[in-house]
Amino acid sequence: MTHSPNEPILLSSSLHVDDARKAIAALVNDLLDESKAINNPADIEIVPLDQAINRILAVDLLSPIDVPAADNSAMDGFAFDGVCLDTKAPAVQLRVKGTALAGKPYEGSIDPGECLKIMTGALMPAGCNTVIPQEFTTAISDDVIEFKQDQLKLGENRRLRGEDLQKGKPAIAAGRLLRPSDLGLAASLGIASLQVKRKLKVAILSSGDELRSLGQALDAGSIYDSNRYSLTGLLNRLNLEIIDCGIVRDDPASLKQAFIEAARQADVLISSGGVSVGEADFTKQIMQELGDVGFWKIAMRPGRPMAFGILKPVAGKSPARKTLFFGLPGNPVAVMVTFYQFVRSALLQLNGANQTEPPLTQAIAEAPIRKKPGRTEFQRAILGRGPDGKPMVRLTGSQGAGILRSMSEANCFVILGHEQGNVAAGDWVDIALFDGLL
Ligand code: AMP
Ligand code: MG
Question: Rounded CA gap, 176 and 40, in Å?
């Protein structure tokens, strides 16, 4: 490993979000190099198309056919040889020789002066290379149509064989996080199953003496373990295998045991709680024995404290691989923000995805937002439309790191960059939507 999370830059008192992201990406890259995980045949699975959604394509999907397989019409209209369009005459008249439907090709050929009534998707007959859309034509008699020459050029409204995809060329590149359109595309090529990366095994555990599982009684000072469920929900979006390691008490022996057990089973361990100033020393000690983990103070809000690094291969783990470790802060909103900002892209990268960043867009702030330069903030907000129809965003009430309702009511983050100061009403701000459409 060339990049240790404990290198000096990471010990700075407050780490820029971008530097934290770079350090994570570099470490994941090192892990991939070590294990050759991307190209390891053992890490590939073949799944039927209907189960491939949100999986990551492991090898380029080569098209077994040309798409379209033959020249065909892009419009309902009349197919003819467009060579005749070179003449100076303002209008052209053609005799309609027959009809071609999608799935019912016309067997004969079309000579100069003739045309074929043709439907969208129907094969272009021999002798034809151009289609005049129906609406541009007038019927002169039962079997003669006329249209103006200047309405089209030779070759228009025809889809060429292989125009969409060529046989033997990649239809979908390796590393694609498979979306509905990719499944449709594979099906259109007659491909029924795909080679995808195996599901990452991700262990989660919640640490804290105050935590109770659902169904348990709440005694004084205790709270329900909500992070387990928000994390499970976040991970489920990525179609992973989740290993739930439950609640671990704030006690060195139990914590160490839980980490070892999780590392034995998982590629990645995500814990929440136990990394804030008051508790970090205690967790640090354990981590020194188990691996190479940095304890970061990130210049962000929410989510300032975070631990990140690797755990050494645990005895009995097969294959003997390291485990990537994220020690997220305990606060319920901070867990989700740090997951979004750091964990999600690392998981995608680790699993060979070629695009790991969620898209950003912009909207107008409805009201002023207070912001101190020197940290990145992730405020929870609702994106809608302003009176003028422009995208407008407003914050969801109190933004405390423990106030999960601010997250639950929101549909996006307003992301205020490191250098940014106060935002005035009417300013454009960066936003990241919680839900993608497709
Ligand atoms: P910590 O990072 O352990 O200091 O926790 C910070 C805050 O988050 C404390 O108020 C904890 O009670 C709370 N917290 C920690 N873990 C969880 C959890 N799994 N579910 C809900 N709240 C939690
Ligand atoms: Mg705690």
Answer: 17
Judge whether residue 10 has pLDDT over 60. no
The pTM of the full predicted model, rounded to 2 decimals, is: 0.88
Residue 417 CA to chain centroid, in angstroms? 22
pLDDT tens for each residue of 50-77: 999 999 999 999 999 999 999 999 999 9
Contact residues of ligand 1, CB 6 A cut-off: 206, 208, 210-211, 223, 225-227, 272-276, 279, 329-332, 402
What per-residue confidence (pLDDT) applies to 88?
Answer: 78
Q: How far apart are the first and last CA of the chain?
A: 37
Task: Give the whole-angstrom CA distance, residue 369 versus residue 413.
Answer: 13
Which of 331, 337, 339, 403 to mutate for ligand 1's pocket (most ligand atoms within 8 Å of CB)? 331
DSSP state of 360: -
Task: State the Cα–Cα distance between residues 73 and 119, nearest whole angstrom.
Answer: 7
Compute the distance between CA of residue 55 and CA of residue 180 in angstroms, rounded to an integer: 11
Closest C-alpha among 109, 117, 170 to residue 145: 117
Contact (Cβ atoms closer than 8 angstroms) between residue 57 and residue 194: yes
> What is the rounded distance in angstroms from the CA atom of residue 268 to the CA atom of residue 120?
51
Strand partners, 193: 48
**Calpha distance 183→233 (Å, rounded):** 23
327 Cα to the center of ligand 1, angstroms: 12
Distances (CA, A) of 315 to 160, 283, 292: 59, 21, 17
Three-class DSSP category at 359: coil
DSSP string, 265-333: H-SEEEEESS-SHHHHHHHHHHHHHHEEEEEEEBSEES--EEEEEEEPPPTT-SS---EEEEEE-SSHH
Q: Cα dihedral sign for 287, 344, 246, 313? A: negative
Strands (E), 74-219: 77-80, 91-100, 114-118, 130-133, 138-141, 144-148, 158-159, 170-172, 193-197, 201-207, 211-212
Q: Which amino acid is at 299?
A: A
